[in-house]
Amino acid sequence: MERRRSVLLLPGQGAQRERMAAGLYGAREEFTAPMDEFFGRLGTTGERLRSAWLRPAPNPELDESAVAQPLLLAVGHALGRAVGTAAEPPALLLGHSVGELAAACLVGVFDPADIGALAAARSRALDGTDTGTGTGTGHGGMLAVAMPVEELTGELGGYGELGSPGELGGSGEFGSPGELGGYGELEGSAGGVVVAAELGGSGDGLVVAAAEPGGSGGGVAVAAVNGPRQTVLAGPREALAAVEQRLRDRGILVRALRSGHAFHSPAMEGAALRFGEALAGFGPRAPRAAAAGTVVSTRTGVALTAAQARDPHFWGGQLAAPVRYWPALRELLDTLGRRPGLLLLDGSADRSLSAPARHHPAVRDGASEVVPLLAVGRDAGGPADARVFAEALHRLGEQRDHTGDHTVVS
């Protein structure tokens, strides 16, 4: 019997929650040690981040990118370390936005000891970002919309069609596919994402083309495709508010995400270039041996290549490029969901990462399975986190015991 492959799902901005995974802190040494190392390397900034992380809701400070992004990076990395230490490293890693940077650290593209410095460099890159308003403040917003992306791009105007990952430079083993964190369970049908031109020499040509200023979109772009009925928009606040009102007037469900920046939109091009330049100093490498797991990039929708891993502007460019989370996850489920199946390890604090997968035929018929790593609701961030995490480890151990060590990799 072939073993199911484990897939670690890591969240990005918008999915941050007060005390996310905090119930593991002090309860699981495999999680606590990397978190303490992260905080310790940042000194007084680390102490401020620790305090913000452990503070119960409501905590508006978590809406600040300079707080949310480092914590998402650190928690995602620590969760992956904990799974790998207590059970085994996941076979595949799928990270949303900054979650993909955490995945890169887990497979050795970046040195885990540099996570604190990586987070600081990402925060510095956001300073002074031009939002297209001429203010240079870097402020913008993000909006989750319950609408198929094809319909939404037509509503905004000024967009092209999604190119296949192969056309965009992806060359992973999964072929071409067919919520920025906080993604939410919104109702609305599947699609692609907008096309764009190359950014910073990253070679994958994946930058959103926004509507012309003053046009129907006003600089608002499709930032992420998080599910068959989940699309995220980003852009300057005034333009985004106008689009939001128009959608609400049509009876379409929308929800503002916890972000003070217009991530994954043209507004972030300056920050993307600055971050890529900073990342060159960290010496990104090709991932370690296959035993460390394969990153399936939500920037390209396919497996990360060695050339992409070594390119600092591939990672920096994520700030301005749309997130292909659902196309990447759907491709995994379409191609590997039944041969022999997948264990989807949901590392989000609201289980939003696995929400779209639950409706996929491979999960509905039991060939693949969703395995939460953290508690949700009132139990989130408390002792129940450790219980849910232990249950996930037990599930991974059951599979190992039942099938031995003979994972088949195609």
Characteristic terms for this protein:
disordered C terminus; 410 residues; five-stranded parallel sheet; 9 strands
What would your notes on this structure say?
This protein is α/β, with parallel strands linked by helices and 410 residues long. The protein is built from 13 helices and 9 strands. The chain has helices spanning 29-41, 43-54, 65-86, 98-106, 115-126, 149-156, 237-249, 269-279, 306-310, 312-316, 325-336, 361-364, 384-403, and strands at residues 5-10, 92-95, 141-145, 221-227, 230-235, 254-256, 294-295, 342-346, 369-372. Strands 7-2-1-8-9 form a 5-stranded parallel sheet, with helices on both faces. The longest helix is centred in the first third of the chain and has 22 residues, at 65-86.
The N- to C-terminal Cα distance equals 15 Å
Number of distinct beta strands: 9
Shape, please?
globular
The SSE order reads EHHHEHHEHEEHEHEHHHEHEH
Task: State the secondary-structure class.
Answer: alpha/beta
Biggest β-sheet, characterized? 5 strands, parallel
- State mean pLDDT (0 to 100 scale): 82
Report strand order across the widest sheet.
7-2-1-8-9
- Fraction of residues in helix: 25-40%
Cα-atom Rg, whole angstroms?
A: 19 Å
| Count of runs of 4 or more consecutive helical residues | 13
Provide the low-confidence segments as ranges.
130-138, 158-216, 405-410
Strand percentage, roughly?
5-15%
